[in-house]
Amino acid sequence: MTTITLLPDPANPLDHSQAEQAFADILDGTVADEVVAAFLIALAERGETSIEIAAAARAMRQRMLPIEAPENAIDVCGTGGDGHHTLNVSTAVALVVAACGVPVAKHGNRAASSKAGAADTLEALGLDMARAGDTAEASLAALGICFLFAANHHPAMRRIQPIRTAIGRRTIFNLMGPLANPARTRRQLIGIARPDYVGTYAQALALIGDGMAWVVSGEEGIDEISIAGPTVLAEVRGAETHSGTLTPEEASLPCHPIAAIRGGDAAHNAQALRRLLKGEAGAYRDAVLLNAAGALTMACEVADLSEGVVRAAEAIDSGAAEALLDRWLRF
């Protein structure tokens, strides 16, 4: 390997050209591991800018293995790392929203800091990860849902993962999952674990400028629309962003403490998701209804959150969401 040790000085914010070249070099493996590690740590300690986040996302998109998807496909994905160890909300939301007739290309991974990531829980439900990867494009076309296991679609990340593991802390690559969906979805509900960072993240999306998204973060630092209280929201439409807040009450739902949706290992979370799809009431159901309503609203399928809750509840109570899961497992 030819080693290039010159990366821009991360002590100062990088401009567009510096950032794009830096992440191209990092992902192409032309920079020594120790140089990459020092660069990523310095960025994290300073705080990544929207320009740097957008540049990293563009670099990953240029090197990913894409799939074809319907024009109206969406993604519901969080960055993870919020430390609350909740049940798998976005995974359940993907099934519910898809059962409402909106194609969902769910991008995800195994757990990094939680006990069960989307891939872990889906596997515990019976989804064969290898087959799901091979048939992702077909299942999205036929069923309206697929799971895009990040490791299958981002080969450039293979040389980055050992560096991230050695660093042992959050880096800019923890923010990349929702920004590099292999289905190139143009509509997204994105959860991040830092409410103070919603504006910066939304501006990165605006710099990429190719779709519509809601970027959300519960005020307690949860990477989804919070069932416990207010959520910081930024809506991105192309190159424009608009900020605000929303609460469960706006969706005609009660608040619940975050502890009420505390999860466990993959088997535990899979069982909870099955009970949810069978109609079990409680905080988990309300959290899924709230986030599904957000996804449906963002996708312009419903007029507001309250209508979205009604649509999502119908998808569960009619058995459509569970039937979709079962068809998916057999696909």
From TrEMBL:
Cofactor(s) needed for function: Mg(2+)
Keywords: Amino-acid biosynthesis, Aromatic amino acid biosynthesis, Glycosyltransferase, Magnesium, Metal-binding, Transferase, Tryptophan biosynthesis
Domain Glycosyl transferase family 3 N-terminal per the UniProt entry, residue ranges: 13-63
Binding residues annotated for 5-phospho-alpha-D-ribose 1-diphosphate, in chain numbering: 78, 81-82, 86, 88-91, 106-114, 118
Assembly and oligomerization: Homodimer.
Family: Belongs to the anthranilate phosphoribosyltransferase family.
Protein name per the record: Anthranilate phosphoribosyltransferase
Organism of provenance: Sphingomonas vulcanisoli
Lineage of the organism: Bacteria, Pseudomonadati, Pseudomonadota, Alphaproteobacteria, Sphingomonadales
Gene that specifies this protein: trpD
